[in-house]
Amino acid sequence: MTAVDAQADTVKAAASLPHSKSVPEEIWEKVVILLAMDATHKMAPTTDAAHPEMIYMKIPVGLLQCNCQIIGDPKTLEAIVIDPGDEVERILSMLGRYKLSVKAIISTHAHIDHVGGLAKLHMYTGAPVMMHGEDLPLYHGMEEQAAFIGMAAPELTEVDQVLKDGDTLPWGGFHASVIHTPGHTPGSVSLYMPKDCGRVKLAQPQLFAGDTLFAGSIGRTDLWGGSMEQIMESLREKLMQLPDDTLVHPGHGGSTTIGLEKEMNPFLK
């Protein structure tokens, strides 16, 4: 099956999803397109897992099932939250399960499904909000994104730290490196945690890829500031240079590895 065939199948599947009759069909058609083009995968159920070396939780939130991801240190109980797109009460509940203190709230990019809960989570935790500077215009243009989806624009909060390529983000016994991966949006970033990750030694490297790389697909490039040329450069020159055993956690859907994507992803052939 080609990538085009897979995406066509995803459009059909998304179109058959149950939805409220109060949602106008022209709005639902836009939602279907977003679901299909963000990744060719089934929406993931809510999952969480505690590993000996770290606490990791993936919480698919909101209409487009953005993966909000929590990475915590089981010793210090410090954590970061990546892409709190919606359903902040659920996110807070999961943080409370492990008594985690949030040290940073990080947006991989400024699409509405990834930033919708930023303000509320910041209000409850006081943690600084971080985003790449090239996505700030997109972030502050939230009304246009909301109109495209057909939903109310979320409340915004100030961005406390502007990220740039090569930044190191420490928390607990961990650190992550910021990789600027433009293409899906101008300011898209991925976070990379090597095996030797500060005090903690990981079983394998970890990559939080936002909507740049999915299992078997890549991020769409036809929205505000998207570029196919840039995303392919980000993938080939940056992400595909990481170790093959790097575990990739995308912004939607299930996990994969760099090695598997090199072998199987039709966009990387």
Secondary structure elements and pairings:
Blueprint: H1 3-15, H2 25-38, E1 47-50, E2 55-61, E3 66-72, E4 78-82, H3 88-97, E5 101-106, H4 112-115, H5 118-125, E6 129-132, H6 136-140, H7 142-149, E7 161-163, E8 168-171, E9 174-180, E10 189-193, E11 196-197, E12 200-201, E13 206-210, E14 213-214, E15 217-218, H8 228-237, E16 247-250, E17 256-257, H9 258-264
Parallel strand pairs: 4-5, 5-6, 6-7, 13-16
Antiparallel strand pairs: 1-2, 2-3, 3-4, 8-9, 9-10, 10-13, 11-12, 14-15, 16-17
Explain what you see.
By secondary structure, this protein is of the alpha+beta class. The protein has a single domain, classed as 4-Layer Sandwich (Metallo-beta-lactamase, Chain A). Helices cover 29% and strands 26% of the residues. It is built from nine helices and 17 strands. It has helices spanning 3-15, 25-38, 88-97, 112-115, 118-125, 136-140, 142-149, 228-237, 258-264; strands at 47-50, 55-61, 66-72, 78-82, 101-106, 129-132, 161-163, 168-171, 174-180, 189-193, 196-197, 200-201, 206-210, 213-214, 217-218, 247-250, 256-257. The strands form four sheets. It has a seven-stranded mixed sheet, covered by helices on one side. Strands 8-9-10-13-16-17 form a six-stranded mixed sheet. α1 runs antiparallel to α2 (25-38). The radius of gyration is 17 Å and the shape is globular. The two termini are 14 Å apart. Residues 1-24 and 27-50 have low confidence and may be disordered.
Largest sheet: 7 strands, mixed
CATH architecture type: 4-Layer Sandwich
Q: Quick one: overall form? A: globular
Terminal CA distance: 14 Å
Strand line-up of the largest beta sheet: 1-2-3-4-5-6-7
Instruction: List low-pLDDT spans.
Output: 1-24, 27-50
Secondary-structure element string: HHEEEEHEHHEHHEEEEEEEEEHEEH
Q: In terms of structural class, how would the helical and strand content be classed?
A: alpha+beta
Report the C-alpha radius of gyration, rounded.
Answer: 17 Å
What oligomeric state best describes the polypeptide chains here?
single chain
The CATH homology group name: Ribonuclease Z/Hydroxyacylglutathione hydrolase-like
CATH class categorisation: Alpha Beta
- The proportion of strand residues reads 25-35%
Q: Would you report the number of β strands?
A: 17
SS field, number of helical segments: 9
